[in-house]
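Hi X.,

You mentioned you wanted examples for the new student's onboarding notes, showing what a folding record looks like when two proteins sit in one file. Here is a clean example. The first protein comes first, with its sequence line followed by its structure tokens.
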Amino acid sequence: MRLKNGNEYIPQQEEKKQSLQYTMIAVICVCLVLIGTVFAIRSYPQWMAKRGNNGIDLTNEQQKQQVVPNQDVVKQVPTVDSRDAGKPSESESNSGKKSAFISPVSGTIVKDFAMDVPIYSKTLDEFTVHAGIDIEAPLDTQVCAAAAGTVTKVYTDDRLGITIQITHEDGLISQYSNLSTNKMIEEGDVVKQGDVISGVGNTALFESLDAPHLHFEIQKNGEAQNPTSYIK
């Protein structure tokens, strides 16, 4: 076949143009799908965090002064080496009484302490004991030291994710798990009550299907205690 100007018509060129157009359209569609997927993933934790719960509300005026909800964890806490730390003052010592702790994060308890009667785990799909309490809060909400003490462990637990342990007086240890970072403090640091030590994360493998929260434990002489008995 020839055109009026005598040039031969080459159908392959038209087919190549159409193929290129289809390829561009396919690439655009894939990009739109990827953008939508990223948006959905980023929005999921915030949607989960807004679900209603009927647990114990640990938000109070004193805690609001200690913790700034939703504020990103952006800088390291100023601390001192434990070798330079003096003895606790009389006001910090409560001999014969349970030490006064504050809630390490402002939020609602969505899973209670349960060592005698197992409770259901959505992630494990079975009933298990629960050695602490889960306090729901948005991702990266600041987590504070519940009481003054010395940081004795900073590690990643196989079940509970990034974990920090602080040793207090009277044989008490507070443990903070499912954290977002372990870069803010080091073992041996001395912290005051209310010092920011990390943020709420999603690192706990055994609680990964739960809404964003802090897993908080208190131990006395190696035995798990109900944290709500110590939080003032």
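Then the second protein repeats the pattern, sequence line and then tokens:
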Amino acid sequence: MSNTTANRTSRGMSAPMLVGGAFLLSTVANLAFRVADLVFGDGDPHRPEGPVDSIVSISVVGGLGLLVALAVGLPLIRDPARARIGAIILGALSLVTLPVWWSGAPAVLGAAAAWLAGLTKDGPPQTGVARGFGITGFVVAVLVIVAVLAGNLASLLG
């Protein structure tokens, strides 16, 4: 094994840390803010788009995003050619699901696309379109995490 290959595989974060971290920092963090609003808020918890409705929708859509990411990613990661296709599919799904960014689903799907594209230390390195969708997925994941955290912090302060 060459020095370049050894350096490439020893750097970066692992796939479980990337995908799990995206889920925790988007879906679970948003759920925590909704639960805090439910416990400490003084408004009606059953109001339209209130904490109860938000907890249900975030849980369902965010959970489905995680299930899809794992259902696509885990079987495809073993074969680099199939991982390439999975990176494209999950990267595209991360873009298509952007309208439901509050659920964290685009962040998880984007992180899984980055994993299949080889942007983690345990993913097969991809090139071309698959790598592009992996990078796009990673950017989507970061932006969704920032939007969820910034939006919730802004609502607390304002």
